[in-house]
């Protein structure tokens, strides 16, 4: 693993600690993606196989992406604000900071026995007693998969399906730069344990809503390029969502359309969200988009990151365009307007 500042233990020690407790809360980040939900539900299935009592929390009371409702246990997710149980052992997965667990922060504060983080997002701080973070892992579900093995449970069925879903989504169907030999080996193990790649692909990648497709048409029509096509940017307004009948999750796949254009090395998708603008960045070369996101107060991985700007969509477009142009110019690229 790649040692991180906040890591203070290993997965074997976490497995031993979890085995000694009985009541668990598992939470991920706000706006959970496939890796987040797969990590929560995969670990929950493993702990339940040991006879543990487990509740999976949603960091924010909002619907999950409809393409992920097939995951075993998804129907039992509880909004953190509605949780009225006893917070004994708190496990955070795919999330590095208390700010990103939203309304579940209160449950973390109330955890009276043990708190644990298993993640692949590297930050400089720790929010739990035990922390294991491996940014070299293609997905957090790869770490949950290993942890489930160390717990000694049968990983066939729900554990395999949940973990495979997280891995295939965080690697972009094994197309992103984080797809390495370790990821492929883990995927093979998950498939051998019962995960069905065709079913997961159909449910997630071939199951978009019509509003999502219409929203993508708007975004593609608006695409703007910079640095002779090295980066592409587009944006969506509240009015676009209203006109198409789309919800927030419908915008998630759109950045891949920008990223797929020949010559584009970095793609950025902006969308209005309440009084703010949410930005997503994807790279298909060595450009560190996490560094760009951090300049806006966000974060993420080298090839995939996000941020939030508290300004108008027009101001956000101008700021991000200038920042991307400056990033490429600093690397010696010829960047015009």
Automatic annotation (TrEMBL):
Task: List the molecular function annotations (GO) for this entry.
Answer: nucleic acid binding
Return the Pfam families for the record.
DHH, DHHA1
Matching SUPFAM superfamilies: DHH phosphoesterases
Q: Where is the DHHA1 domain?
A: 249-324
Q: Which Gene3D superfamilies match?
A: 3.10.310.30, inorganic pyrophosphatase (n-terminal core) (3.90.1640.10)
DDH domain spans which residues?
24-149
Spans traversing the lipid bilayer: none
Q: What is the name listed in the Swiss-Prot or TrEMBL entry for this protein? A: Recombinase RecJ
Its lineage reads: Bacteria, Bacillati, Actinomycetota, Coriobacteriia, Eggerthellales
């Amino acid at each position: 693993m790649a040692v991180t500042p906040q890591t203070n233990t290993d997965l074997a020690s976490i497995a031993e600690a979890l085995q000694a407790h009985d009541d668990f809360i598992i939470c991920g980040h706000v706006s959970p993606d496939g890796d987040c939900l797969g990590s929560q539900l995969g670990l929950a299935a493993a702990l339940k196989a040991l006879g543990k009592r487990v509740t999976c929390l949603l960091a924010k009371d909002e619907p999950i992406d409809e393409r992920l409702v097939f995951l075993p246990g998804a129907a039992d997710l509880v909004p953190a604000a509605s949780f009225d149980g006893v917070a004994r052992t708190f496990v955070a997965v795919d999330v590095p900071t208390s700010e990103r667990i939203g309304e579940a922060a209160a449950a973390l504060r109330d955890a009276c026995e043990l708190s644990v983080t298993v993640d692949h997002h590297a930050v400089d701080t720790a929010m739990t007693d035990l922390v294991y973070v491996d940014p070299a892992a293609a997905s957090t579900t790869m770490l949950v998969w290993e942890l489930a093995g160390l717990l000694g449970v049968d990983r066939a069925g729900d554990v395999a399906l949940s973990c495979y879903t997280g891995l295939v989504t965080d690697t972009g169907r094994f197309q992103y730069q984080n797809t390495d030999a370790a990821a492929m080996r883990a995927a093979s193990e998950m498939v051998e344990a019962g995960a069905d790649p065709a079913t997961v692909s159909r449910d997630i990648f071939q199951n978009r809503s019509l509003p999502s497709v219409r929203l993508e048409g708007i975004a593609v029509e608006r695409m703007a390029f910079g640095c002779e096509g090295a980066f592409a940017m587009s944006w969506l307004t509240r009015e676009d969502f209203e006109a198409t009948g789309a919800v927030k999750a419908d915008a998630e796949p759109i950045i891949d359309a920008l990223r797929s254009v020949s010559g584009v090395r970095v793609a950025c998708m902006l969308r209005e969200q309440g009084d703010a603008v949410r930005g997503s960045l994807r790279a298909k070369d060595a450009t560190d988009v996490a560094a760009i996101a951090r300049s806006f107060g966000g974060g993420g991985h080298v090839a995939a990151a996000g941020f939030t700007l508290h300004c108008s969509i027009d101001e956000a477009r101008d700021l991000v365009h200038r920042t991307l142009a400056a990033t490429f110019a600093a690397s010696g690229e010829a960047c015009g307007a």
